[in-house]
Design a protein that fits this description.
five-stranded antiparallel β-sheet, alpha+beta, five-stranded parallel β-sheet, 22 helices, about 700 residues, globular
Amino acid sequence: MKRDLAYVVHSDLVIARRVSEALRQSDFEVASMTTLEDAEFVIRERQFDLPDAILTPLRDMESGDSILIRLLESNPLMEQIPLVVIASAGAEERRRALRLGLLGVVAPPYDDEEVTLTTKLAIDKHRHDQALFGTMSQLSVADLLQTAEVGRRSGAVSFQHENERGRLWLQDGQVIGAEIQGGLEGKEAVYEIATWETGTFEADFGSVDVEPKFCMSPSELLLEAMRRLDERRAASKEDTETIVLLQTLDTALTMLNTVVSYASNHMEVNLVLERLETIRDELVRESGQLGGIRLGSAGEITLEPGWDLHGGPEDFAGFVSTWILRFFSRMEEALAWRFTKKRLAELFTPWQDRMERLGFVGFREPRDGDSAGETQTGSRTRQPVVRGSLPEGCLLLDGDLRVESYAPYGLRVNHLDSETVTGRLFLSLLTDEAAAVAEVVLKSLARMPIEDRSSASTEFEAWSGHHGGMWRINLVRRVVDGGFIVTLARLRDLSESLAPVLERDPLSGALRDAGHGRVVLANEDFLDAFESVFTKHMGFRHHELLRELGRKWGIRHAFRLEQHVQREYGKTLREMETQMALELLSSSLGVLGLGSFDADLSRRDAGIIVILHRDSPFPGHFVAVSGGACPILSGFHSAVLTYLSGRTLAAREISCASEPRESCVFIVATEERVSKLTIAVPGTPDHELVTSILASGGYGASP
């Protein structure tokens, strides 16, 4: 029977010998280390050994340069070995160990029985409670199996590689069975698993209750696996180049479909395609490699039938990367904050590693604490799919229509995240209406030859959660694996103009504007009640909260007007002439009962914009304290001008209308500039500027 192996790590030779002798008398195999040279010797001699426990003083665990740290660096699995603290005299070190979650502590005079029992309890608890996790990029399959062989380990090891799952069983260090889910079994499965270089593993060492299928040492199996791999590589270099090409094309289609579908959430799809086409024309002058990419009218991106890619896949990946990066940069100029480099990196999160391997670069956004190949210590709980949710985003389906990977268009979209969606049948994630539409389209694509039809797009009406609306689903055949690229996005209704017209639904009596948005009447009684509640419960903060309400209201109104502008004018609000955009915003407020406004841009050299707002509904109903009675409009104007400028702006009311025909005066600038203007001392340039604004409009002599 294999003896338990303990590493005793202590710089005090006397203590190391005392603890080591106690363990040896209890039939432990012991490796003692008192210097870094000792540790290097053990690492060389026991390359694939993994101890059952490590005994070390607490200061070595907390030090950044110690014998223990060198041991942990030698093998990623070493971090998961149970630790026993060799404490010094006194109770403080024991308490520190307990605060760190370390229950195994031995203290002077290091009684033989106490040392042995504490170590055995730590080993037994570890074997009972924990399995070993890791990534194959940190510890290869070969190193893992050789470690198990030298340590004569028994148990089961599970592997996850891309969309494949494998499992093998060990008995006293010998492989006695193996399988790949839905594929190979026995030795052939081991030969295949041994070639996996990426993915994760979970080793559950303990008793084995499976019937042995064969019995071979990992060394023999690995030797044969490497021989086969060498033969395969030598015989299939040309096939490998073809595979890389197909993977590059497949990844490019995935990226482009994701980008276009995401952009179509914020801009009319025909405007998105126009921008893509313009940038492609610029790049085609440098290379014709992008000429074989077809832009569909619904935003689906496919390859031209029979198109032959001239040049290497890496060159193609480089041009596609430039195309997407340049597109996002120009979209950010048109629609601020939604097309940042960070947002682009988030969209491509599921495919970042594959993209970089194939030459698609420039998309990774570094994050704090991001560490490639970090050891896995567990996985998130898989959440159930809520029926009625729709996975808005881009999904890669394998040949069985299971979700291979998923990139949502936000951190939490419709309460579905990547961990919940990945691995599930695509149709099971959809509402009944959406599933019926998707199934028909998928079947029609599957029946037709690839050269005849490589994509399909359709629109359908469905409810997601409590919201109904139209959705567009695009399906594009993948170049590899016989699966599909699916993009699913909500459609905005742009069929009606945003005119200040109200219509009554003859059946329900509800009021709706020309854009089919429901209108709720808020008369003077409502305004009085609203203000009294805010004043009573929020006290001095109620103006601040009303401004925040105005900001939220204003940004949603700007989004809504954006849709109308794109449809009517073929551009975004930010791309219009500023004064015209402001006039459109002003004219659209009547339906909301908020009056209208003029914008004075003549003082932009002083860093401010002046807003003269007519027919505000709030004076006379809201309490007019310092800052005026229209904090909602302050927030509203700061939001719409922030939207237009792409800069974070604030607004304050400096004069509130006392008569219905007068205008409320607002200044809009950065938060710092607005604060200085509103507290300006008489005689200063800022106070004179505010005074001149009020005097020029006849609104009073001082703020």
